Amino acid sequence: MKSPKNCTNILLVGLDSKFNTAVAEQLALRLQMHYTSCEDIVQYQVQERDLILQRVGVAYLKKREKSALKECAGYIDCVLSIGFELFKENFKLFSQSVICYLKLGKEFIDEVKSKIAYDERNQFLEENSHTTITLQNKDKKQASKKLIEILGELL
């Protein structure tokens, strides 16, 4: 993916949502920026998920999720975190963000059970992120430090 220009946000994506969130919060503290979880915004704006699915279907639910993510993408000077599934369907919305993939080895990922799924998701994230940060463990302080070094080169 081409290097970002005139970006206002930092978007962290990865295959371990909890770790992503922890690193994003740590990074926001270190950079003195606001932090937002895209999942939390979607969940807040689409509170009746099961009812929406039952009454009006998947297409409408996806439309509501996309609307919430457009709001997140429009934030300024914010560190954002997003899970793989939401990112996969909506990554093009984040054109004003530096997209950073926090890559952990398969042994650290509980959310992806099969090697094939891990490899496919990993490839997608590498192709659709501005930078990939390969991590040897789940140390959020080390990850945020590495991110700051790499972001300094990108911006």
Characteristics:
155 residues, alpha/beta, Rossmann fold, 17% strand
Largest sheet: 5 strands, parallel
Number of helical regions: 7
Rg, rounded, reads: 15 Å
CATH superfamily of the domain at 9-37 and 76-154: P-loop containing nucleotide triphosphate hydrolases
Structural class: alpha/beta
Report what the structure shows.
The structure is a single chain. By secondary structure, the protein is of the alpha/beta class. The chain has a domain at 9-37 and 76-154: P-loop containing nucleotide triphosphate hydrolases (Rossmann fold, 3-Layer(aba) Sandwich). 52% of the residues lie in helices and 17% in strands. It contains seven helices and five strands, in the order E-H-E-H-H-H-E-H-E-H-E-H. It has helices at 17-31, 38-45, 49-55, 58-73, 84-90, 115-127, 140-154; strands at 9-14, 34-37, 78-82, 97-103, 131-134. Strands 2-3-1-4-5 form a five-stranded parallel beta sheet, sandwiched between helices. Strand 4, helix 6 (115-127) and strand 5 (131-134) form a beta-alpha-beta unit. The radius of gyration is 15 Å and the shape is globular. The two termini are 15 Å apart.
Question: In summary, what is this structure?
Answer:
The chain has 155 residues and is of the alpha/beta class. The chain contains 7 helices and 5 strands, in the order E-H-E-H-H-H-E-H-E-H-E-H.
